[in-house]
Design goal:
6-stranded mixed beta sheet; 20 strands; Rossmann fold; 396 residues; 10 helices; alpha/beta; Archaeosine Trna-guanine Transglycosylase, Chain: A, domain 4; Transcription Regulator spoIIAA
């Protein structure tokens, strides 16, 4: 195994179990690793620290293990079995009314660079690193071992996530399918609500599973309210509001495909209230509505900042968006506002929303602070994994 030797004094983060080795910490490489190879990481004094995937870029090694050998038989099976045990512990795996969840969440499950979502027997995988992409056959075999006959298919959807400059053949497709399985979409349940998920054509893996608990919270407050769901995608928040007895639910997204799925999901859940679906730019829609038309708003935009270079412009966008929502919501209304930008931490996001509220001059209270669900765990040694943050606001 290739040895990556760190500079003197640059091993402290690994000794605290942080899962990344930055290129600036590397003093010497003994061997010639190809991107995605498993390498051993050693201190300047020659002590073994960890092993992981070698990659080109600012993060030089993504750690797979601080003790076990990632090349040993059973490594992938054991890792996925441990991830499943977490979902079983929080009541997701095996639940009768929830048949979809995130099975593997990168660093949060000790497998940096790997995402796997479970949709009622279909596992959809996304590799965010060359090492995970190259290991997809082993990962697929491990899934078959862990789930047995419960597994219907394994679909690789890494074309939009794996490094495109690495010379990989990035074509989405099935790694394995049970005999006779031909579906490209399925109806899954989340807390008893039904959703149509298309893992071949949908965004990400087909559904935004990280908002499960926050969707349930919207359901708690939606009864009798006029609800606006901005950046609605396939209507997750809308369905919870409708099934909870909202008086009216309007959903807005610029994607025609997404809006088609919103309509199908509404029919699946037999909603009878006033429902309006708008295929429009959500920000433009928000600016043109009259004040007080809605008394519950969900503001859940895509990531405005995917890297630190975009942070300044992203914060300005979050401020303008939240100022518009706070200004337009009816007196006594609620605003659920979110950021899924990893480079925007929760304190910065809260300060940005504070600035937006001050700009409107309205009295605003924070009722709750929101985050990703338990199937998107955050390693205590990797706080950067807490990417989803949100606030529930009460606006007088």
């Amino acid at each position: 195994m290739v040895k990556v030797i760190l500079k003197r004094g640059r091993d402290e983060s690994l000794r605290r179990f942080h899962p990344w080795v930055f290129s600036g910490a590397v003093a010497q490489i003994q061997g010639s690793p190809a991107e995605g190879d498993i390498v051993g990481v050693y201190s300047a004094e020659g002590q073994f620290l960890a092993s992981g995937h070698w990659q080109i870029g600012s993060i030089a090694v993504r750690i797979l293990s601080f003790d076990a050998d990632p090349t040993a038989p059973g490594f992938w099976t054991d890792s996925i079995a441990r991830a499943l045990a977490v979902r079983e512990a929080v009541g997701l795996a095996g639940s009768a009314d929830t048949t979809c969840f995130r099975l593997v969440h990168g660093e949060g499950d000790g497998l940096p660079g790997l995402i796997i979502d479970w949709y009622d027997g279909v596992c959809v995988m996304q590799a965010h690193s060359v090492g995970m992409f190259r290991a997809k056959a082993q990962i697929c075999e491990a899934l078959r071992t862990v789930f047995g006959e419960r597994l219907k298919a394994v679909y690789d959807k890494s074309s939009g996530t794996a490094p495109f400059k690495a010379g990989l053949e990035l074509v989405d497709g099935y790694l394995w399918r049970a005999e006779g399985f031909t579906a490209s979409e399925a109806v899954v349940q989340e807390n008893g609500r039904k959703f149509l998920v298309n893992w071949e054509e949908g965004q990400k893996t087909g559904f935004f599973l990280d908002q499960r608990d926050n969707r349930a919270l919207v359901g708690k407050y939606a009864a009798g309210r006029r609800v606006l769901n901005l950046f609605c995608y396939t209507g997750g928040f809308s369905i919870y509001a409708l099934t909870a007895g909202a008086a009216q639910v309007d959903s807005v997204d610029s994607s025609a495909k997404a809006m088609s799925l919103v309509e199908r999901n509404i029919r699946l859940n037999s909603a009878s209230q006033e429902v309006n679906n708008y295929c429009e730019d959500a920000i433009e829609f928000l600016h043109k509505i009259p004040e007080g038309k809605y008394d519950l708003m969900i503001v859940d935009p895509p990531a405005f900042a995917k890297h630190r270079g975009a942070l300044h412009n992203a914060l300005r966008a979050y401020q303008r968006l939240n100022a518009a929502a706070i200004a337009k919501v009816a007196p006594g209304g609620l605003v659920f506002t979110f950021s899924c930008s990893q480079v925007v931490d929760k304190i910065t996001f809260a300060n940005t929303v504070f600035s937006a509220a001050a700009q409107t001059g309205r009295s605003v209270r924070i009722l709750d602070r929101l985050c990703q669900g338990a199937d998107h765990p955050v390693s205590i040694y990797h706080p950067e994994g807490e990417y989803l943050k949100g606030l529930l606001l009460y606006v007088e």
